[in-house]
Amino acid sequence: MAYNSANRSERILQSRRFTTDQLITPSEALTKVFDLGVGEIYLDTQYIPSGSSQIPYSGSSGANAIVSASVVDPSIESDLPILKYWYRQKLWRGKSAGRQVYYFRESEPPALDSQVFLDSVIEADQVTNFISPKYISPAITPSQAGFITDNALPGVTGYKVTVFRSTNSNKNSLTSDNIVTDDKFSFDYKTGVLSWLSGQEPTTSQYVYMTAYQYIGRTIQDQLVGGYTGSFTGVFTGIGSGSFSGSFKGNATLNNLELTGSFNHTGSYSLTGSINVQGPIISNGINVVDNAIAMAIALG
């Protein structure tokens, strides 16, 4: 049996991915499931298009294309990559699991009988973090949200993956007759693993393809490591070290502030503690209380 919902639930609770019943639970690869780290929490979900009219790609011309934040917010100052469109990507079949499980990877299998190295090992180019129908606007009915932007499937555009089975090795020759219905497989949008329900796996002469959207936007980890770039308006509180590039308006409370380049300030400025200055200070007026500056101060 390829898919078993009880076993899948058990393995997820153990922070393991589910591929097939052909593997015992301890043989499944450990991965991130519920124990979310900063690298797994999406930071740019507000830029994921939630209306079908905003989802731009529907065919081979959009293969590997990027959906940017400006699709949702045209006024954004520094555009960001948010989604990647995968058009009829050919999937890899399992090793010991065989045709009961298929994997979505950046590379495509070179032959019909190509398989992953081991089902218990996550390949280096395994694709994860796919966008599910939950990101479609609630105004769209569940049945409409099920459609994906593959031109072989008419209807309202959505984020639900489209799965194909065919003996044809040319993805551009697939038709709606090759589309597999939902009741024959289960797809894990987080890990990129497609499991076939019992008796529904492809034949030995069939390839498996998938059209899907993947999240490639920032995570909290990216922001912590890369700092803040662009403009910011509001209240900014920072603990520890970090970097900020761009314009800033509002209030900032920082333990340490390091400035490189010019600094323009309008209004009052309060400082508690000491200040170290290397180089001249040029000002129209400056008041120094209980401190001495042993440097050249040019007062305009």
Could you walk me through the main structural features you see in this protein, from its secondary elements to its overall organization?
- A hairpin with a 4-residue loop joins β6 (185-188) and β7 (193-196).
- It contains three helices and 14 strands.
- Residues 140-146 and 292-300 have low confidence and may be disordered.
- A four-stranded antiparallel sheet has the order 1-2-8-5, with no helix packed on it. The protein has a four-stranded antiparallel sheet with strand order 3-4-7-6, with no helix packed on it.
- With 300 residues, it is mainly beta.
Short recap of the structure:
The chain is mainly beta and 300 residues long. The protein has helices at 5-13, 142-145, 220-226; strands spanning 66-68, 81-90, 92-93, 101-103, 162-166, 185-188, 193-196, 207-215, 228-229, 232-238, 244-245, 248-254, 281-283, 297-299.
Mean pLDDT: 80
Number of strands: 14
Strand count, sense and barrel status of the largest sheet are:
4 strands, antiparallel
Query: How large is the radius of gyration?
Result: 26 Å
Strand content: 15-25%
How much helicity do the residues have? under 10%
Stretches where pLDDT falls below 50 for ≥5 residues? Answer: 140-146, 292-300
Class derived from helix and strand content: mainly beta
Along the chain, the helix and strand elements come as HEEEEHEEEEHEEEEEE
Tell me the overall shape. elongated
What is the oligomer described by this structure? single chain
- Please report the distance between the alpha carbons of the first and last residues: 84 Å
Q: Could you give the order of strands across the largest sheet?
A: 1-2-8-5
The DSSP helix count reads 3
